[in-house]
């Protein structure tokens, strides 16, 4: 059931956000179990021990290890047992030759089919450089053909959404997006569709938030998008973010992203995500008028003295 749960304390294993996203995107439960096993085992891998610990077969664990290597989460050291940290590789595909492409088109039916479908999606023939880029995504990044085709259609839709109707996405843009998907661990059609759905939600949220935050007439920066997307991931709606913006401007006199982010993260930690919840759980202090101290009458006045004061007042008013 949905909700926010309290996790047990004690010995803990930390999985970085990037690794978690790649594992979720892979859709492989065995890979997730093996990754936890490797973390808890000091980075070492033994097929039989891993199989016993995860209640899987050795063959399943070996296959899961291949998934982890493909996701870039581990690489095997020389002894084949200790996965070592994987260094980030540059976003540059190997330099394939036209002969490599011709050979693959003649001998590889899968790539040949992929080329035909991509050209249909783009509405034009791929150049020699375009074919080389597509082959690099297929051969080097190891994205499955159905994922590549989904990626190309996504890039085409993104290009059209930016007012570039009629223009096809550049192969460089497709290549950069492929690297981003590979880093996210998007190796299945289901993971690709989930990513596109999430990106669509981000864009819809950005369109609503930009006017609220006074960001009109220009494209959002990468940092601005990261803040907005993180607030969407936390579960805040437009009204709640507008409330945080109002408090930020009231306090600082302008939009201060870090200050506004701290407000929203504080609410998120308290489970407050709607304006109603925020007003009940974190209402700003109400303004109170300062209390006016009244000076008490002087102590010790006798009845005779009070009567003399009254008589003096009557004379001033002309009553006597």
Describe the structure.
By secondary structure, this protein is mainly α. The chain folds into three domains: 17-84, Arc Repressor Mutant, subunit A; 98-187, Arc Repressor Mutant, subunit A (Orthogonal Bundle), CATH 1.10.10; 209-281. It has helices at residues 17-26, 29-40, 47-54, 58-71, 98-107, 109-122, 128-139, 145-161, 171-184, 189-212, 222-234, 238-252, 257-269, 275-281, 303-317; strands spanning 75-76, 83-84. The chain has a two-stranded antiparallel ribbon. A hairpin with a 6-residue loop joins strand 1 (75-76) and strand 2 (83-84). It is elongated and about 125 Å long.
Give a topology summary:
Layout lengths: L16 H10 L2 H12 L6 H8 L3 H14 L3 E2 L6 E2 L13 H10 L1 H14 L5 H12 L5 H17 L9 H14 L4 H24 L9 H13 L3 H15 L4 H13 L5 H7 L21 H15 L3
Antiparallel strand pairs: 1-2
Helix pairs in contact: 2-4, 3-4, 6-8, 7-9, 8-9, 8-10, 10-11, 10-12, 11-13, 12-13
Query: Architecture of the largest domain, according to CATH?
Result: Orthogonal Bundle
- Share of helix among residues? 55-70%
Shape: elongated
| CATH topology-level fold name of the largest domain | Arc Repressor Mutant, subunit A
The total count of strands amounts to 2
Total domains: 3
State which percent range the strand residues make up: under 5%
Strand order of the largest sheet: 1-2
Order of helices and strands: HHHHEEHHHHHHHHHHH
Radius of gyration: 33 Å
Q: Are there runs of 5+ residues with pLDDT below 50, and where? A: 78-88
């Amino acid at each position: 059931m949905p909700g926010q749960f309290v996790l047990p304390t004690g010995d803990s294993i930390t999985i970085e956000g990037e690794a978690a996203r790649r594992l979720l995107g892979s859709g492989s439960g065995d890979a997730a179990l093996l990754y936890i096993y490797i973390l808890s085992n000091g980075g070492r891998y033994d097929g039989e021990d891993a199989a016993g610990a995860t209640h899987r077969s050795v063959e399943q664990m070996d296959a899961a290890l291949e998934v982890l290597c493909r996701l870039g989460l581990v690489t095997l050291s020389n002894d084949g047992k200790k996965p070592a940290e994987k260094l980030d590789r540059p976003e540059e595909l190997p330099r394939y030759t036209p002969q490599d492409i011709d050979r693959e088109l003649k001998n590889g039916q899968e790539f040949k089919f992929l080329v035909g479908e991509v050209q249909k999606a783009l509405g034009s023939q791929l150049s020699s450089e375009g074919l080389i880029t597509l082959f690099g995504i297929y051969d080097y990044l190891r994205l499955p053909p159905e994922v590549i085709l989904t990626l190309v259609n996504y890039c085409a839709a993104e290009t059209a959404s930016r007012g570039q109707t009629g223009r096809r996405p550049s192969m460089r843009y497709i290549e950069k997006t492929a690297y981003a998907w590979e880093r996210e661990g998007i190796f299945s059609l289901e993971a690709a569709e989930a990513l596109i759905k999430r990106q669509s939600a981000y864009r819809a949220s950005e369109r609503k938030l930009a006017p609220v935050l006074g960001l009109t007439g220009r494209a959002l920066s990468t940092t601005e998008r990261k803040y907005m997307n993180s607030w969407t991931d936390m579960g805040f709606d437009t009204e709640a973010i507008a409330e945080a913006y109002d408090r930020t401007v009231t306090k600082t006199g302008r939009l201060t992203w870090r200050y506004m982010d701290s407000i929203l993260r504080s609410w998120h930690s308290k489970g407050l995500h709607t304006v109603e919840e925020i007003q009940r759980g974190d209402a700003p202090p109400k303004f109170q008028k300062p209390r006016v101290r009244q000076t008490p009458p002087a102590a010790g006045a006798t009845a005779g003295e009070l009567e003399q004061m009254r008589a003096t007042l009557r004379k001033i008013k002309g009553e006597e």
